[in-house]
Amino acid sequence: MTTATKSDKDRVVIFDTTLRDGEQCPGATMTHEEKLEVASLLDEMGVDIIEAGFPIASEGDFAAVHEIAKRSKNAVICGLSRAAPKDIDRCAEAIKPAARRRIHTFLSTSPVHMKYKLQKEPHEVYEMVIAQVTRARNHTDDVEWSSEDGTRTEHDFLCRCVEAAIKAGATTINIPDTVGYTTPEEYAALFRMVRERVPNADKAVFSVHCHDDLGMAVANSLAGVMGGARQIECTINGIGERAGNAALEEVVMAIQTRNDVLPYWTNIDATMLTRASKLVSAATSFPVQYNKAIVGRNAFAHESGIHQDGMLKNTQTYEIMTPESVGVKQTSLVMGKHSGRHAFVHKLEELGYKLGANQLEDAFTRFKALADRKKHIYDEDIEALVDEEIATAQD
Ligand code: KIV
Ligand code: ZN
């Protein structure tokens, strides 16, 4: 989309929670220094809101949020808090140094969470919503309220809580799919329903927050936006509780690549996505799966002969975005048993070889035989094979 066509109503705010929901998953703990490095990159790449941590959770979390708040240049710095007054006050203290700061306070609203987790009646939860948002508003005028387990919440009660939260001063309303249970159509309809039924809905920005238990976090997030939400909560590489959260790089590139059907825009510099993915992977020691969309090492790699042939003729045959657009230097044509003659000749040219027709045919046959035996074919393998072919021909 060109700058001229960007309008505020189509702007989707990117709320990154890599340092909070992402770090919360088993094994993803980051050191203080690593968190500062990740936050700095998120800030540089255009993330609008950085959820830097859960300050009441530990001294370490508090210190990281506090330091990130001191250093942030552009992004709003956000901390998470439960409904308890001491949580909210601790969160406010942690984010204080930030030029722009947000308190994100949440409370469960689904029957199963209210009954077993909170052990409270709905009318008590309703009063707590008002109290938590009011307390947070005493610290900052940027307050987000989340109805935890929102997608399994009874609709009338959800609408009453959302209305009360907005009345108490919440400026962002997040309806999370905490357990990754919803589907795209259902989630879009939920946002339409809430925005239609809540009388003061236009006073708040609605937000999606999706978990990936059924592998639908990104699709659900985008559907929520189509239902009227304008903030996406996501993490780099999709790390997060259990199966993870919606992946930032995927929602950003879906909007950028399919702008015809997703007519929105974000402030993210997509050319920094690969760098961010590598940094988070190194900081958490979570490897990125090879076939991960956008940032997996195979995302711009082709081995099959048919695909390589197509790519050599026109890259749009098998790529819907350029590698450069997400910060990858170039497409790679991986040589293997599926590669065809066209890609083999291209590789030889790259390596500086020009063979006659017969030599080429022999070398290609040898290459195919080698590829059947060997999983990874390196440039050195091809060089050795061709050198041998040339030497044999000279004998
Ligand atoms: O998944 C969830 O419901 C959360 C909330 C704290 C927003 O992470
Ligand atoms: Zn979550």
UniProtKB/TrEMBL annotation:
EC number: 2.3.3.13
Cofactor(s) annotated in UniProt: Mn(2+)
Residue stretches spanning the membrane: none
GO molecular function annotation: 2-isopropylmalate synthase activity; acetyl-CoA C-acetyltransferase activity; manganese ion binding
Residues holding Mn(2+): 21, 209, 211, 245
GO biological process, one term: L-leucine biosynthetic process
Key words, A-Z: Amino-acid biosynthesis, Branched-chain amino acid biosynthesis, Cytoplasm, Leucine biosynthesis, Manganese, Metal-binding, Transferase
Major enzyme class: transferase
Pathway: Amino-acid biosynthesis; L-leucine biosynthesis; L-leucine from 3-methyl-2-oxobutanoate: step 1/4
Subunit structure, as described in the record: Homodimer.
Family of the protein in this entry: Belongs to the alpha-IPM synthase/homocitrate synthase family. LeuA type 1 subfamily.
Function (record text): Catalyzes the condensation of the acetyl group of acetyl-CoA with 3-methyl-2-oxobutanoate (2-ketoisovalerate) to form 3-carboxy-3-hydroxy-4-methylpentanoate (2-isopropylmalate).
Protein name as it appears in the record: 2-isopropylmalate synthase
Taxonomic source organism: Pseudorhodoplanes sinuspersici
Residues of the full protein shown: 1 to 395 of 519
